[in-house]
Amino acid sequence: MSVDVEELRQSVAETARQLGRKGLVLGTAGNVSARAGDVVAVTATGLVLADATIGDVTLVGTDGIVRAGPGEPTSELGLHLGIYASSEVRAVVHAHSSAAVALSLVADELPPVHYAQLSLGGRVPVVPFAPFGTAELADLVVTAMRSRSAVIMAHHGSVATGHDLAAALSNIELLEWLCGVYLSAAAAATPRAMTDAQLAATLDEVVRRSYGTTARRAED
Hints:
By secondary structure, the chain is of the alpha+beta class. It has helices spanning about 5-20, 75-85, 100-105, 135-145, 165-185, 195-220; strands spanning about 30-35, 40-45, 55-60, 65-70, 90-95, 110, 125, 150-155, 155-160.
């Protein structure tokens, strides 16, 4: 077993503990995975994420066959593998965070309420309810994740992806914050979403600043 894979397992365990410390999961409610080639390191089923160790991370092939680990992988394995099969992301984080769950009870989507939401792909849909661990739920999430890096699952929680575990964790934290902002505003009045023109202007500014940074680096 390569050192890289062992480091991947360690990183998955650490990310799981961070989810617990940040209050994004309660007990065993959530799971984490990361991919390296055709191997996926994923938290085991029934794991209290806040207490995760490397020994609680199972290695599974992208074909779904368990290769190494202490026990059965998370019941949401199909969701993780489906996302990897349909995209180039390298990490998936699933949480039962309270603000995301609460929003799923009152809205069909999280509209763009802050420009930071652009990093998630803009509007974040709430996928219809399906029982956890089912192929139906996995298909709903995989379809909704196209062109975005986070979705909300009705009566369930949230899922975020990233090019690595740090990015996926950051995305799910951002989603939870955005859901909290929306719910706080909704308690006073109907939240105003950003317009397409405002979002486009923000993207233009991001591109302009990124181009300027790239040009300066080329000159150095």
